[in-house]
Amino acid sequence: MTQGNIFRSPGPWALAAVVAALALLSGCEQAATTGQVAEAVLPSWSDGPTRDALVSFVADVTTSGSPHYVPTAERIAVFDNDGTLWSEQPMYVQLAFVIDRVEALASDHPEWKDRQPFKGVLEGDLRAVAASGEHGLFELVMATHAGMTTAEFSDAVEGWLVTARHPKLQRPYTECVYQPMLELLDYLRASGFQTWIVSGGGIDFMRPWTERVYGVPPEQVVGSTMKMQFEMRESAPVLMRLPEMDFIDDKAGKPVGIHKFIGRRPIAAFGNSDGDLQMLQWTTSGPGRRLGLIVHHTDADREVAYDRESLIGRLDEALDEASDRGWVVMDMKRDWEIIFPAAP
Amino acid sequence: MTQGNIFRSPGPWALAAVVAALALLSGCEQAATTGQVAEAVLPSWSDGPTRDALVSFVADVTTSGSPHYVPTAERIAVFDNDGTLWSEQPMYVQLAFVIDRVEALASDHPEWKDRQPFKGVLEGDLRAVAASGEHGLFELVMATHAGMTTAEFSDAVEGWLVTARHPKLQRPYTECVYQPMLELLDYLRASGFQTWIVSGGGIDFMRPWTERVYGVPPEQVVGSTMKMQFEMRESAPVLMRLPEMDFIDDKAGKPVGIHKFIGRRPIAAFGNSDGDLQMLQWTTSGPGRRLGLIVHHTDADREVAYDRESLIGRLDEALDEASDRGWVVMDMKRDWEIIFPAAP
Predict the structure, then answer these.
(1) Is the CB of A263 less than 8 angstroms away from the CB of B218?
(2) Do A262 and B228 touch (CB under 8 A)?
(3) Which CATH class name applies to B30-90+172-335?
């Protein structure tokens, strides 16, 4: 249609002008939702059904007068972290932290060199660590995550992130995040969404850096928590981390964590594994327009291809349920032009 | 100083213009902090030291270039609810809900009429209820707060609030809130603060109405929580409330709740009882400019005068500690021109 055509058919043109005026009037309530603008804000997403699904969802819930319009306050999007926002292969980042920290603390714990699973960690014998089972892992987590104040733990995490490197990518873990997901977070926030992290990982392992890396402030991070105790040290209060789990924010725990921390049901959920199944179910069975999206790791060349058989980030039940529940299954190989951000 | 004087001394006038221009340039970061503007936004607060303390704190942390300047993201203020934002006399509102709910549910529980503490509630024999002690209270709370979905509980709270009336004021409980505190919440938010509730009350008892009444969204409410369980009902998920406490957000639990839910240390805390002691300690012992304020119920004519001897909202230790820690002790009789809002 040429410009002449537009002016010859004033009907749609006038309508567009009214829509634009309404958009201006409604201010922040109205987000940019045309494909053209989305292209500008989702540059690392390939053209195709996944990108279209994201853009049309955002258009539906942010366009005033749309039957699917959702007020800004209720635009809550929840994101899993491991495998959804950053790489979880070849092992969960928090597990790498545990291993490095056992090594860092070993000189204060001479008994560890003769005791599993610590011995296995110190000798690099991961088979022995695995043989210690869930109880062994629990011991490792408690030895490295408890018995210190919240401030001390936060410092330990931040200090570790400065020097630790992803074993394969040889980059800081905070650079092993998915560039397209960073763009999606920005796009949703620009469209009036709150973007929350809902992760099985430790809440205090994430909070020190999520704002810097993802633009997600500490108060919008939900994760697993340990018991804490308020103590007074020479009239200055501290919070001590106790060697006891308080809440595990994984699988059926995720909707519980969402209700507890957020108190509203999200309208969009993004995950990549069966750990996110219930979060996806909970989010997408509310009334009105909803979006569930699964990040499917299909790219063995640029990242890792894994799903039903993987020990880390197994995606099986959620994949089976996706089509019945109308979830979008993203295909990393097809849908992402870029995986990781350029080096800073 | 007359207008002529102002123009004859261009120094301060020019400075004021520069400050105003900077304020405009820095946009939302810069809050109105002059006494004159504060008067417009805190109309129910009497002139005097308490109001001055509020205004000077806000000016200190919001003025760009001030040595006490705090970025918007870190402007977290926490408010106790019972006795700080709304009336807790003659009994906690949530206890009135428990009593009314026992009556409402009694026909489904014929056994209650012969069993304490239910019998006592149904017969209005509060002495018998009190005699059942903490365990009795726990039983009442579980019978009225658990065994239903989160959505059902939220509906029960909202339904109750429509008809329930404060026994003395004969107004809906959501109108028995303190007008000066509503203004303070607005003033802080207009100054870039997040205003969080941190209450010993049930989180799901508060969330259905805090946004409407206080302007505090559900995700900024911290309170006591019950265990929940994710369940699938004919492929539609629900969250069931279990008869077990998850977390008690009172006394030494308040800093724990703050760290767990917010993940940052607040810079201002508002409370009225020893239940807020640790929250005040935790908030005001962080670095930089801090504000702790105690609402002291001193007005027997317009509300209730109570502190050290009260069973509800006892204020004793926190009052003793206030001057050493530099907390502002507000005097309701002196500092508040109005207690409750005008009827709508």
Answers:
(1) yes
(2) no
(3) alpha beta
